[in-house]
Amino acid sequence: MKNVKTAKRSAVKSKSAKPVSVVTGGAGFLGSHLTDLLLSRGHRVIAIDNLVTGSTDNIAHLAGHPDFKFIQQDVTEFLFLEGPVDYVWHFASPASPIDYLELPIQTLKVGSLGTHKALGLAKHKGARFLVASTSEIYGDPIVHPQTEEYWGNVNTVGPRGCYDESKRFGEALTMAYHNEHGVETRIVRIFNTYGPRMRLKDGRVVPAFVSQALEGKPITVFGDGSQTRSFCYCSDLIEGIYRLMMSDYHMPVNIGNPREMTMVQFAEAVKAAIGSKSKLVFKPLPKDDPKQRKPDITKARKLLGWEPVVPLEKGMKQTIAYFKKKLGV
Ligand code: UDP
Fold this sequence. Notes:
Blueprint lengths: L1 H12 L6 E5 L4 H12 L3 E6 L18 E5 L14 E4 L6 H6 L1 H22 L2 E7 L26 H21 L3 E6 L2 E2 L10 H10 L4 E4 L5 E3 L1 E2 H13 L6 E3 L4 E3 H12 L5 E4 L14 H7 L7 H16 L2
Parallel strand pairs: 1-2, 1-4, 2-3, 4-5, 5-6, 6-11, 7-10, 8-13
Antiparallel strand pairs: 9-12
Helix pairs in contact: 2-7, 4-5, 6-8, 6-10, 8-10
The site of uridine-5'-diphosphate has 14 residues, from helix 6 and strand 8.
């Protein structure tokens, strides 16, 4: 109930003309960067997070900010907020393969029941809604690069099924609310993103390789390292997502960086950026690990006038500085 009271207080204050945004997963890696951007663009922000994978460290700098409220709540539970809401950004979800293994049911619940609650809030408030979907809905893609028209190749019962299918369900539910209830909705498909505030031990390749290289430990390449990913810096991604929300396009849009590389190339890039002498060690490839991934961003370019502007080298510099501080090296 404590959380409800916090929300009430924030609602009373919301008499100003500032747009009000609700960010689920607001204490997470991307949710917290989105919150920063929204505050910088004059929004009032209510961040909701159950802190399962998010951290108050990511929003500590906003303590006392007059336009910021934090509510610790699981978004699969009823979302009660008084006062107007203009935008709902649904970002809450575990988002790394080791999280899905540890939290498969919570992952499924937040993508399904959590999306339902967030859509319900948007409908009730007459707010515009954006769901953070993912390149994972393409599964282990046969079409390359991936366009929004590709329907994907997903193993429903594999280790990533809980994430992929909950996000696919989330997209379907979002379309249903758009069609049935006339809610203004947006669907962004987020490709691999990196930057400060990623969790050091979330198992994803960026924190893994950077921390290994910084500590002079072997760099763990899964499989033969020929699988590809395309990494987008967080500020580029958030800008694209903001533009999508403010656009009038309700069909899915890929946001990501089309610069594709193999995991061996990425390991070498991390080593070079850090000046590390770490050796590469090859570990078994996890089941259903996609062999290739690269966004086709034609739609984002045309509709939003958006494309990434931060080169990998520059983004990695910021990211490495962040992890250095975290590791105390
Ligand atoms: N990967 C790796 N070593 C690690 C962690 C990940 O080689 O220590 C590989 C992983 O097998 C995948 C790629 O890096 O092919 C990206 O993995 P991540 O978990 O970051 O995200 P994914 O894109 O697979 O969801």
